[in-house]
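Run folding on both entries below.
>entry_1
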Amino acid sequence: QVQLVESGGGLVQAGGSLRLSCVTSGRTFSTYNVGWFRQAPGKEREFVAVINWSGDSTYYADSVKGRFTISRDNAKNTVYLQVDSLKPEDTAVYYCAADPNPRRGFVQSRYEYAYWGQGTQVTVSS
């Protein structure tokens, strides 16, 4: 069983930055791909970014490419999402999720991720 706990969200002005963290438990975490998703009020949960199990490959949604950076430290069982140049439309609850089947490559569908955290709120004021 894998448990994930996000933190680092908050209220920030447009153009600001935050560093979100996703701390996990479970001995097999280092073998999973981990993704970040977000959900704004009244909208579907959408893919943001994903990192492979070793941390040397990443993929981003077009809407955040160049502004967000995903990374991981397997020794600390932690995945990070550095969010820069924030815009009001980035306001959402941000979730991390683990995909236990990394051999199929990166997946963007939330239904393919087996484990989820409880989310952390990011609010960007204009």
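>entry_2
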Amino acid sequence: QVQLIESGGGLVQPGGSLRLSCAASGRTFISAAMGWFRQAPGKEREFIAAIMWRSGLAYYGDSLKGRFTISKDNAKNTLYLQMNSLKPEDTAVYYCATSNALNSASAPRTDAYNSWGQGTQVTVSS
């Protein structure tokens, strides 16, 4: 069983930056990849990015690539999401998740992920 704990969310002004972290514990060594999703009230969960744990190959959702960057620290079993130039429409709960197998086609699908964190709230407002 993998446990995922997100942190780093909060209130930020438009144009600001935040870095989210996702600390993984448990059976992380068998997780092939990890990803970030977000969900705003009344909307479906949206894919942000995913990264292959060994190779570092990253997949991004088309709408957010360029402002958001996914990275990882294998030694710390920690996933990161650097978010820049934040906009009010980025307000959402952000989730990390693990997957045992990903490719470019499956990365955006929530059913490709088997463990999820509890989420961290990001609010972009002046």
